[in-house]
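Why should sequence recovery work at all? Because a backbone constrains its sequence more than one might expect. Tight turns favour small or flexible residues, buried strands favour hydrophobic ones, and helices have their own preferences. The token representation captures these environments compactly. In the example below, the structure is given first.
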């Protein structure tokens, strides 16, 4: 298992496109500034505890009081790469969409299990893959560096279907099998097999009507094929197993060949596949047609690629070729990885777990192999990038609609969201807040995690308690107040406006913030709670256990209520990042100094998450849980810090030029290091090692790390 898998309950690996059984279908059960980045952050940033993103449903019982979001009002019959976790898979944005996909393997020279590729998997050892160009809507071009040569998967859609060109350029003599399949997700879509590649699948459904899939190649003569048809209850996460369990080894020309075990007993079913056996270099063209095509291959693709306009101008900024390539890959992969899923939200009510839905979710994903589904606070960062490129696509993500009175519909939901946060995460002091969900019982964790915050293992008070107050959450709610004050002026009542003005006023009050969260001796903003300055994870004898010892948290000084002043890191930057510090305040000065100090957060690769002076710096949380937000460089927080630095660089005041200087240096460091790592590995990474700059964690990670493009192109929100 990769070392840095986020072991959080709401980040379970579960690549479902629908609930796992395919058939039967799942049972039914003003000023631009006003809604700029802040609203987007607010819409997405602060969610925790739920399995899936709940975008426009927060409190289900009162849902009927909210204006309906009618949707989706985009064309739900257009095919796209909305199966984020596949090397190559296509579907439409509709629960009834058939799923198209590709698998491949190298023909083994012995009777062993072929190493089949289907879902993106870091364990496949594919050195590079990703979208070279994509618009998230109509076309994509992907390069995959397989062990024995490059593969390209390029595609475009048209009104009723798609065409894909798959190119294999493998080493001479290498034999490969490519499998294309179509699987139905509901009982009214039925598929059959043709005898010729020119009409290899055909089918019908009440959703798409008649459809037909053809495969073509310039080397048709040298390609043999075999087919498979199944009609059964199928699990979507087992499709490659079905292929392999229906594969047999044959001998042909003194070589072993694996082919599909053809069985033509049934004439139609819910899963059809064709396997093509290829050698060396082959171009395959696969098309799905429902109605007449409107675009031709390959001019269509070339035209799409050429007409792709991005608002991210990097020219004349003196970037190297590698840096520019990284910028392109950041954008293409963000767009090419957008996924569509469908299923139920699990909502925890007092009387039990309630399945809410079914719901549709259209969202970008942090990482195709690792986190191929929506995450709320990640999506806030994703949409910052997407909305610059294609504002309508951004709205389709947020409200499944591309126009209309979007904010008016979002406003009542944001109200509930804000109210829910204020009530459910209320702290023990007025205007203080506490993330829920820390484990106060455990002594197995060095510092019990705060998953709700999104900063997982970032150290907080050592002994979780109800007295605890979290700095980042208070700052988020100050931001909520600021945004809601503006939105209520446009969409709310006077009473609401007064209420949010009060929230904003109270939570942005500097004296109050300082009183609650500033440590004068340490000169930092931090959390407050039951905290011991002296804890460690130590080997403790436990005679009853098999190993005779275990790692436990050992506390040498009893915890007491105090500021968590031996932890300086990302959490401490929230007052700066959310612009709660006046431009002439000493708090800004001291925070800037600490940012710039190499013993604290400064590295030549970007800002690290935790000061090297903190006892938690690079500390494991348990024996099995390596540090995650305890030193590593994360791009989303660097992005927020850069935006704030730019903001302070524009505010007249004594620290204006300090902010500008730090901004310039930090930006250059981030871009240089990420590009070096991109050059070295071909990937953008989840986070970066603060000692070596090396990419760490899951990869490719084209979620919020792609904000590097916003940074490079000076698209910071000030
Ligand atoms: C993708 O592959 C094609 C064909 O091999 C090549 O011409 C192109 O440069 C590649 N693009 C990138 C970004 O690697
Ligand atoms: C780019 O580099 C040239 C030559 O080193 C320099 O004159 C120019 O000012 C630089 N431009 C920018 C935008 O940094
Ligand atoms: C649901 O909430 C209750 C009360 O907060 C809690 O005790 C329970 O563990 C929660 N259940 C799950 C599955 O999270
Ligand atoms: C990219 O990597 C190659 C080979 O490791 C190296 O020669 C080259 O200088 C690197 N380019 C940049 C811009 O870092």
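From this structural description, the recovered sequence reads:
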């Amino acid at each position: 298992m990769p070392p840095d898998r986020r072991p959080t309950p709401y980040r379970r690996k579960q690549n479902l496109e629908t609930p796992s059984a395919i058939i039967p279908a799942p049972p039914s059960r003003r000023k631009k500034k006003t809604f700029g980045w802040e609203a987007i952050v607010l819409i997405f940033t602060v969610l925790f505890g739920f399995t899936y993103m709940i975008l426009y449903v927060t409190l289900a019982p009162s849902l009927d009081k909210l204006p309906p979001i009618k949707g989706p009002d985009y064309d739900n019959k257009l095919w796209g790469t909305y199966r984020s976790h596949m090397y190559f898979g296509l579907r439409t944005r509709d629960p009834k969409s058939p799923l198209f996909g590709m698998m491949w393997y190298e023909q083994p020279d012995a009777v062993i299990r072929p190493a089949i590729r289907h879902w993106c998997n870091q364990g496949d050892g594919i050195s590079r893959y990703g979208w070279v160009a994509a618009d998230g809507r109509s076309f994509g071009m992907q390069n995959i560096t397989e062990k024995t040569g490059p593969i390209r998967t390029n595609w475009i859609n048209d009104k009723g279907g798609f065409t894909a060109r798959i190119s294999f350029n493998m080493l001479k003599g290498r034999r490969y099998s490519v499998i294309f399949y179509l699987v139905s997700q509901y009982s009214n879509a039925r598929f059959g097999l043709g005898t010729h590649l020119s009409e290899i699948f055909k089918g019908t459904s009440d959703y798409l009507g008649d459809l037909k899939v053809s495969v073509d190649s310039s080397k048709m003569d040298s390609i043999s094929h075999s087919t498979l048809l199944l009609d059964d209850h199928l699990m979507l996460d087992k499709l490659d197993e079905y292929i392999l369990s229906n594969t047999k080894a044959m001998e042909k020309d003194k070589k072993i060949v694996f082919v599909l075990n053809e069985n033509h007993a049934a004439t139609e079913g819910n899963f059809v596949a064709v396997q093509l056996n290829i050698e060396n270099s082959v171009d395959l063209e696969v098309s799905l047609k429902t109605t007449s095509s409107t675009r031709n291959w390959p001019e269509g693709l070339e035209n799409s690629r050429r007409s792709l306009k991005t608002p991210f101008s990097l020219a004349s900024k003196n970037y190297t070729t590698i840096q520019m390539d990284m910028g392109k890959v950041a954008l293409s992969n963000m767009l090419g990885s957008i996924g569509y899923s469908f299923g139920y939200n699990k909502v925890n009510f007092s009387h039990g777990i309630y399945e809410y839905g079914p719901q549709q979710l259209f969202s970008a994903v942090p990482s195709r192999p690792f986190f191929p589904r929506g995450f709320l606070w990640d999506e806030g960062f994703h949409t910052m990038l997407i909305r610059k490129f294609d504002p309508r696509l951004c709205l389709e993500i947020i409200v499944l609609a591309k126009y209309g009175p979007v904010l008016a519909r979002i406003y009542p939901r944001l109200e509930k969201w804000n109210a829910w946060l204020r009530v459910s995460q209320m702290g023990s002091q007025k205007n203080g807040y506490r993330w829920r969900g820390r484990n106060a019982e455990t002594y197995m964790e060095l510092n019990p995690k705060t998953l709700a915050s999104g900063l997982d293992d970032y150290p907080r008070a050592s002994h979780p308690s109800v007295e605890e107050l979290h700095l980042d959450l208070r700052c988020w709610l100050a931001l909520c107040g600021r945004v809601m004050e503006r939105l209520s002026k446009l969409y709310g009542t006077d009473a609401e406006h007064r209420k949010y003005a009060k929230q904003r006023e109270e939570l942005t009050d500097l004296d109050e913030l300082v009183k609650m969260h500033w440590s004068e001796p340490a000169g930092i903003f931090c959390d407050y709670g039951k905290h011991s300055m002296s804890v460690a994870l130590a080997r403790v004898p436990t005679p009853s256990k098999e190993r005779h010892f275990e790692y436990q948290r050992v506390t040498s000084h009893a915890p007491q209520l105090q500021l968590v002043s031996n932890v300086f890191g990302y959490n401490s930057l929230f007052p700066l990042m959310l612009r709660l510090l006046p431009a002439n305040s000493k708090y800004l000065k001291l925070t800037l100094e600490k940012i710039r100090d190499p013993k604290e957060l400064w590295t030549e690769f970007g800002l690290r998450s935790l000061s090297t002076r903190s006892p938690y710096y690079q500390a494991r949380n348990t024996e099995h849980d390596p540090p995650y937000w305890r030193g590593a460089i994360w791009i989303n927080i660097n992005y927020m810090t850069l935006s704030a630095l730019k903001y302070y660089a524009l505010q007249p005041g004594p620290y204006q030029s300090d902010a500008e200087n730090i901004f310039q240096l930090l930006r250059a460091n981030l871009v240089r290091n990420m590009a070096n790592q991109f050059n070295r590995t071909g990937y953008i990474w989840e986070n970066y090692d603060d000692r070596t700059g090396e990419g760490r964690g899951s990869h490719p990670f084209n979620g919020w790390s792609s904000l590097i493009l916003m940074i490079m192109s000076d698209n910071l929100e000030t």
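A few observations help interpret the result. Residues 656-681 form the longest helix (26 residues).
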